[in-house]
Amino acid sequence: MNVETMISLVLASGLLALAYAFARARWIGRQSAGTEKMVEIAGYIADGARAFLRREYRVLAAFVALVAVFLALVNRSADTSWLIAVSFAAGALASGLAGFIGMTVATRANVRTANAARTGLAPALNVAFSGGLVMGLSVVGLGVLGLGGLFLAYHAAGWEAARIIHVIAGFSLGASSIALFARVGGGIYTKAADVGADLAGKVYEGIPEDDPRNPATIADNVGDNVGDVAGMGADLFESFVGSIISAMVLGAVFADAFVAAGTGELNAVTLPLVLAGVGVLVSVLGSMAVRVREGGNPQKSLNIGQFGASGLMAALAYFVIRWMLPARWETAGVEYTSLGVFIAVAIGLLAGVSIGLVTEYYTSTQSRPAHGIAHQSVTGSATNIIAGLGVGMFSTGLPAVILALAILGSYHFAGLYGLAVAAVGMLSVTGIQLAVDAYGPISDNAGGIAEMSGLPEEVRARTDKLDAVGNTTAAIGKGFAIGSAALTALALFAAFKQQAQVPSIDVSDPRILSGLLLGAMLPYVFSAMAMGAVGRAAGDMILEVGRQFREISGLREGEARADHTRCVDISTKAAIREMVAPGLLAIAAPVVVGFIDKSMLGGLLAGVLVSGVLFAIFQANAGGAWDNAKKLIEGNISIDGTMYGKGSDAHKASVVGDTVGDPLKDTSGPSLNILIKLIAVVALVIAPLIA
Amino acid sequence: MNVETMISLVLASGLLALAYAFARARWIGRQSAGTEKMVEIAGYIADGARAFLRREYRVLAAFVALVAVFLALVNRSADTSWLIAVSFAAGALASGLAGFIGMTVATRANVRTANAARTGLAPALNVAFSGGLVMGLSVVGLGVLGLGGLFLAYHAAGWEAARIIHVIAGFSLGASSIALFARVGGGIYTKAADVGADLAGKVYEGIPEDDPRNPATIADNVGDNVGDVAGMGADLFESFVGSIISAMVLGAVFADAFVAAGTGELNAVTLPLVLAGVGVLVSVLGSMAVRVREGGNPQKSLNIGQFGASGLMAALAYFVIRWMLPARWETAGVEYTSLGVFIAVAIGLLAGVSIGLVTEYYTSTQSRPAHGIAHQSVTGSATNIIAGLGVGMFSTGLPAVILALAILGSYHFAGLYGLAVAAVGMLSVTGIQLAVDAYGPISDNAGGIAEMSGLPEEVRARTDKLDAVGNTTAAIGKGFAIGSAALTALALFAAFKQQAQVPSIDVSDPRILSGLLLGAMLPYVFSAMAMGAVGRAAGDMILEVGRQFREISGLREGEARADHTRCVDISTKAAIREMVAPGLLAIAAPVVVGFIDKSMLGGLLAGVLVSGVLFAIFQANAGGAWDNAKKLIEGNISIDGTMYGKGSDAHKASVVGDTVGDPLKDTSGPSLNILIKLIAVVALVIAPLIA
Q1: Chain B neighbours among A 367-426 (CB < 8 Å)?
Q2: Torsion of CA A434, A440, A442, A448, to 10 degrees
């Protein structure tokens, strides 16, 4: 099969995913949104989300235009520069579009999930999961369409592979730029609103934190969509695209050997795209398996979809790889086999699932760590915090070992290319993985809407059941996002080294060690910036809530309406203002260091990678464990013979831990995924300039 | 001057330091210990400290004997093996002896400082500083005596330099082993007692935390001596010795060039020892400048001693280096100059001072970070914790830049040797640096004794003034300890690479990247172990305090005596029991990885180094800033127009931050200094086996 046909099939899979997503979105739209009150509240949330997108996209458009012009002009002698700029804009557009579709549908699915929960658990799960699936399929569909489309276009122009890949790397940079805004900005937005709403209830007495009279609650619900749906989507879009591109870069070296073996010259370059296309189809199939009977266990149903998809993907990958690659070949004196490449892909899939399960262990209400924190809450906030920090630190152990084994294993079986295809393997099921992730915040929103609209107890009980499952899937999703970011950054790192022609990145060379040290420091400073931003924005939110309660007469009595839009506006402005500094840091650091010394940039990349991954896992798991320790106590728990529940001192201590964990697990921690990938992508794009 | 004469002079400087320390210790002993009550309380503390030392040294003796036998037998074919074992035992003995002397004198100086404070500030400062000086001079004195003595002995046996240095590396391993026990065990001891005493007061109502009836208070005071005096001493002893040895290893390559230049063949090997000897004398001179007039500023006086010593050291180093090294020489195609070596030493001195000052900025009550945390305490514990974590994260930025510049600069001017002598330069003033550090806990103890003995207000006011200065010097000392650990580990790393004949530690090689990732993970797991140990031991302490109040009738009324020894025993046992697991991790990790693959061990070392340094700075500075934010509020502070002081909600929130910060800044954070050095030393010692 020639390259054009192969890529056309990949494009078809992308179109199919989008069509299926469109059908599901239409189906969601046809469901009833329930009572007038429900429609009103959902309207506020949807308006807020749209307001954020509008403002964010205005800033983004300016930023993308600026960077595109810069990319086109920076190296005018190369005729490819303006095409890099075009690829960059396409990447930004695709990521932005996926975010727009996902968030729009999520803000429709939330209220319809709440309404479906009035009849039963099964229909509610169906709506919530469908909402998440639209996000997941939009991401992978637009990802393969964008990459495949550009590849096909440049290939049709008769370009050689190296040149095509160099230009397409711009697509990844575009995706990263949007991811930076969406993940960092979204993270700041959601936690500014959340922490602000919580503390406003504390500072100004008489305003319960979840009360519809509290003007910040709508912003809080908008935040779930902005941060956990759109932010997570942009994050995984970047990983998905980045892993494919780096595998394409690293596959280019096999061309001669493939010609000699009688296989398609570019098959190692197109394999990542084909695997991604197969993954898209597998995700659609997997999503069809997610069905729950009334009274059934939603977790089980989601697991069948997710693990089933991973298993099916592994099986199909075997045949695709056997079909596309020679059984064995030699390049630069090293022997490769198609079986080895398959094993690398399987290792990636397995590592993704394993890291997710470890994350679940450390954060779940079922296992020891969260129980330990709940126990330590009895002696107060301080011991609760110490215990949570300890859990977060300890939880880095196994994921580090899993990643190290995945790196060693995939490299052993297929060299640097193996490393990159392991990342592709892990991310091939992104479609269903993201569906399961985004299902969480939709269920969370549904619960909030049910509460605020005064729906009966049993409805809330059903959405709570969905939400509890959502917490677990969110934890797994975070682990997956970090793990995939690590492997993607690693693959980009390998691609960078090749493109920049760095002979060796020897850490015993002081320049490289300095780079390593500076790189390892960046995640700390970046996290501090994100945390500081949340603190400042939450402070503004508290002041605004106080102002409204003072100035809007009748608000406290529930007779006047709170001005939600002002709070939404504060979160929006803060998110967009505050993401500039960390964003500049992430973009400037590799450029400055790279032009000083390309080997030092290599050290910087390695430092950001290892330090960022560990610091992100630490933050995400500490936050998740604190959250669930609080939930354990809220569900009444017996500790050393005494019962503790809502309102107990132990509960108060656990609330402190949960509030501390919020920005760690939802703002600074996940932002590090972007940091490590963005720095690697920037390095890859400037690689030919510093080579 | 021949080698023997030169080393003899170094030995003389060590003897002089010990003699001067002995004289000061005698002088302290001659001061009055005050009232009967004071003597009684001080007696409990001294007994507790001795009890800990006895038990610790018993375990240590067994451990040292075991390792010595192992070292002697592991490579029986080499005739040097048993001499490595002897060197190892000597290093352990020297470190243990320094700790014994320092702690014994500190537990005498504390009560005498309290008594001197009854007459004035100046005499109190004099006693406290003298107590610290004994520790400082014992460390550097025994350090140069041990290293110089072994060198002289082996040299007299007619050995060549490479062989001597290989054997002497065992001395460093001995020092590291004691440091592990002293720092990790001491850190666990002190915070188990501190947190346990605090929480016991909270859990069992009616037992104020600082009350002499609380059986855990004595253990708390013992902890200051065990952790902050002996632990810090062992930590710096290890850095001091490690930096000298790695510079000796790296200086051996210049022998041929020196012979050609007509200079002493071994001058580059002996220079680190000579610089250390000069530093010992400079410390003695600097200590003489520490004098305060009544009503004067103790901080200023300590600064004159410390910065004056650094300046003098730089000046003397210039002449020593000009005298010992050729003006210029060439080795392996690279040109070196004596001026370059001097600049490297000066860079080390400057970096040490700079990192200390940055640490002071981030933790001082005078500057913005602590004020920011105090402000955030108004909205509760959660915002206090978030703010403190943010300060800790942000504070890693400048030290990382300073270290990177120091690495780049010293390497630029004198290659790998420059890197190692920069560490020697930084540590050359360890004598006075440690005196200033150990002065803090002595003043702290003096304040506690004054309080418990019911001395008049004004006495407590004077010890508080000394203690406040002590907090600042402690922060600077912590920064210095981390910075010097980093440079020492780096120098050891360079020495390891040479000894193990690792051609390249290229992080783009997946084996090495895996090592890097695993290495970067170790500080997290190690810290989690240390924090968990504190939590468990504090829990035991709380139970014991409760038991005593239940079972000893009359204790609550102040009529019966609390059984302090039981609490001291709990802390002691816990410290010794709990340091085993992290200790094994630190020793086993490099051995296991090293025998799998020596390059992977190189990656592991680099990972532990950068991740450990940053995580240690994060923990130390977050802890210090929380501590001083609490102090700010306790001193009454106006925030947004409202006054907050002791007992306010803001104060309660700040106490939570302080308690969380305690194990971070005094147990897990400082333990990482040992981790990064110990792993590097173990790697260096096994280097010839895996070469």
Answers
A1: 376, 379-383, 385-387, 389-391, 393-394, 396-397, 400-401, 403-405, 407-408, 411, 416, 419
A2: -160
From chain A residues 546-605, the ones with a CB under 8 A of any chain B CB are: 602-603
DSSP conformation class of B46: H
Q: Tell me which H or E stretch contains B334.
A: strand B334-337
Mean pLDDT of A39-66: 88
Q: Which two tokens stand for residue B248?
A: 């000796």
B606 touches chain A (CB under 8 A): yes
- Taking the alpha carbons of A512, A518, A519, A521 in that order, is the dihedral positive or negative? positive
Instruction: Report whether A481 contacts A436 (CB < 8 A).
Output: no
pLDDT tens per residue, range A379-411? 888 889 999 999 999 999 999 999 999 999 999
Taking only the tens place, the pLDDT of each residue in B179-217 is: 888 888 888 888 888 888 777 766 665 666 567 777 888
ipTM score over 0.85, yes or no = yes
Distance CA B253, CA B329 (A): 12
Interatomic CA distance for residues A515 and A603, integer angstroms: 5
Q: Find out whether A428 and A278 touch, Cβ atoms under 8 Å.
A: yes
State how far residue A495 is from chain B, nearest Cα, in angstroms: 10
pLDDT tens-digit series, residues B107-149? 999 999 999 999 988 889 999 999 999 999 999 999 999 999 9
User: Are the Cβ atoms of A531 and B389 closer than 8 angstroms?
Assistant: yes
Query: Which chain B residues are closer than 8 Å to A380 by Cβ?
Result: 199, 202, 656
Distance CA(B320)–CA(B428), nearest Å, equals 13
Mean pLDDT to the nearest integer, A249-273 = 88
What sign results for the dihedral spanned by CA atoms B552, B556, B561, B565?
positive
**Contact criterion met (CB < 8 Å) for A606 and B387:** no
A43-52, A197-206, B412-421, B487-496: least confident range? A197-206
A136 Rama class: left (phi>0) / alpha (psi -120 to 50) / beta:
alpha
Pair of tokens at residue B506: 């290229």
- The answer to whether the Cβ–Cβ distance between A502 and B525 falls below 8 Å is no
Q: Find the residue in A nearest to B407 (Cα).
A: A510
The pLDDT mean for chain A works out to 88
Residues of A in Cβ contact (< 8 Å) with B518: 400-401, 404
Q: Select from B194, B381, B541 the residue whose CB has the most chain A CBs within 10 Å, as the one to mutate to test that interface.
A: B381
pTM: 0.92
**Residue B377 DSSP code:** G
**Residue B286 and residue B312 in contact, taking contact as beta carbons nearer than 8 Å:** yes
Burial class (CB within 10 angstroms; exposed 0-12, middle 13-18, buried 19+) of B163: middle
Which residue pairs from A319-326 have beta carbons closer than 8 angstroms and sit at least 24 positions apart in sequence? A320/A271, A320/A274, A320/A275, A320/A278, A321/A271, A321/A275, A321/A345, A324/A263, A324/A264, A324/A267, A324/A270, A324/A271, A324/A274, A325/A258, A325/A263, A325/A267, A325/A268, A325/A271, A326/A257, A326/A258, A326/A261, A326/A262, A326/A263
Residue partners of B560: CB distance under 8 A and separation at least 6: B552, B553, B554
How many alpha carbons fall within 13 Å on the CB side of residue B421?
33
Domain ranges of chain A: 3-690
In this complex, do B505 and A510 lie within 8 Å of one another by their Cβ atoms? no
Does residue A209 register a pLDDT over 60?
Answer: no
Residue B149 forms contact with A (CB below 8 Å): no
Q: Tens digit of pLDDT for each residue in B486-519?
A: 988 888 888 888 888 888 888 888 899 999 999 9
SS3 A250: helix
How many residues make up chain A in this entry? 691
pLDDT band at A165 (very low <50, low <70, confident <90, very high): confident
Q: How many helices and strands, by DSSP H and E, does chain A display?
A: 23, 4
Cβ-contact B259, B161 below 8 angstroms: no
